[in-house]
Amino acid sequence: MGGTTIVVYGKLESDILQKLREQIIIGARIGLWSDSVAVIINGDDMKAAAKLFSVRLDDTEKKVDFEQVDKGSTFHVGVAAKYYKAPAAGQLLGTLHLHS
Questions:
Q1: pTM (2 decimals)?
Q2: CB of 52 within 8 A of CB of 38?
Q3: Structural domain of residue 11, as residue ranges?
């Protein structure tokens, strides 16, 4: 049993979601699946609420869909906030946790 916290950076929400999508598919190939919502933090306003997205991996493990939600499990977002560099102004940080 194991897991990993994925953290990606980008300028656009669509870029962040695409980067997370790619990491989720790689994780599924090695036996890791999302056990949290995806979280996007905006570097322009670190006090603003983060955006949350449910994660749905299809049965073939080749397609990932995201849907914005109001609440959900956010495992290890604190790890991303503490151990990764904070997003700069104009930059977004996307994070999500994968687990076996």
A1: 0.87
A2: yes
A3: 3-99
- The Cβ of residue 37 has, within 10 Å, a number of other Cβ atoms equal to 24
Going by their DSSP bridges, the two strands 38-42 and 3-10 should be labelled as unpaired
| Structural domains counted in the chain | 1
pLDDT digits over 55-88, tens only? 998 887 789 999 999 988 876 666 666 677 888 8
Distance set, CA 35 to CA 14, 21, 77, 86, 91 (Å)? 21, 14, 12, 23, 25
Reduced to 3 states (helix: H, G, I; strand: E, B; else coil), residue 65 is strand
The pair of structure tokens assigned to 5 is 């916290």
Helical (H) or strand (E) element with 39: strand 38-42
- Rounded to the nearest angstrom, the gap between the alpha carbon of residue 31 and the centroid of all alpha carbons in its chain is 17
- State how far the Cα of 92 lies from the Cα of 31, in Å rounded to an integer: 27
